[in-house]
Amino acid sequence: MTLVLPHIGRLPAGPLNAISDVAGVTVGHATLAQGAIQTGVTVIRPHGGDPFRDKVPAAAVVFNGFGKSIGLVQVQELGVLETPIALTNTMSVGSVATAQVISAIQANPEIGRSEPTLNPLVFECNDGYLNDIQAMAVSAEHYRQALASAAPEFGQGAVGAGRGMSCFDLKGGIGSASRQISVGGMPYCVGALVLANFGKLAALTLAGQHIGNGLRRLRKTVPEAPEMGSIIMIIATDAPLDARQLGRLATRCGIGLGRTGSIYGHGSGDLALAFSTAQTVPHRSDSALRQSACLHDNLLDPLFEAVVDSTEQAIVNALFAAESVSGRDGHRRLSLRDAATGQS
């Protein structure tokens, strides 16, 4: 079977076709890849400054809540981010959240004293098929490495938090994409980044073409098992939106996810978060009133389309970028390319 990386939808991609096409957004990884340890951390910085001092509007949506993320309650209540977004494996959420708090305190020593405490934000997926997740190998140092390495250009596939992830019983991981749009005569960008760890092989759909059964004939060793994966979908945009509108954007991630063959299986945690870089919310302000401008709701359709297409594209890009990986107890996940060519 010959596979060609498709362009999803009709909208053009940004120069990098990545979430970092939204100006100021950067991504960094720390990857652990040795024997049974196949895991890591990925960090998304919403801008180059201090997000505790200059927060960005955000909203999160839970499609299926089989997950162990931290920080979503406050995002839902206050509608802002005050740390970078961290992705890792399920059993490393605690250590990464602690690392986020320590990093923020180093920059703002009065956190938890004269200042409020911090809301760390960590999303997770279970990479236990390939990774010895019980080893809890991810440390605070790995978070610091990922944060320090954040840049506009970054790896995709089996890197960072995506190192041990599986997608449609193939190798999954980190994927990213972007779409450029015009709203009211103004140019805007929407970028997506996913941690793809979901789906059953037979359901895999690529740009509307159902290819899972064809791959199944090549991969007769894939056992039948319930859906036990997850996906985290992060959306960034430079369009001026408030938290309510960003929640509407995050909801559209589910369309792009469904197009690839997901049914939000019982054991799958499917979550999305959207944020805007168009304006920041200062931690402290001398003014009693906060002035902000937002797009009218009746102009949001181009953004919705961009979210759907960039989410689907990011999942596809994760599959195409990933390499085959062997890990715990001899478990192996073939990349999409290796599965399509019959390699083992």
Automatic annotation (TrEMBL):
Keyword Cell inner membrane: no
EC number: 3.4.11.19
Higher taxonomy: Bacteria, Pseudomonadati, Pseudomonadota, Betaproteobacteria, Burkholderiales
GO molecular function, one term: aminopeptidase activity
Iron-sulfur listed as a keyword: no
Pfam families: Peptidase_S58
Family: Belongs to the peptidase S58 family.
Enzyme class: hydrolase
Alphabetized UniProt keyword annotations: Aminopeptidase, Hydrolase, Protease
Annotated protein name in UniProt: Aminopeptidase
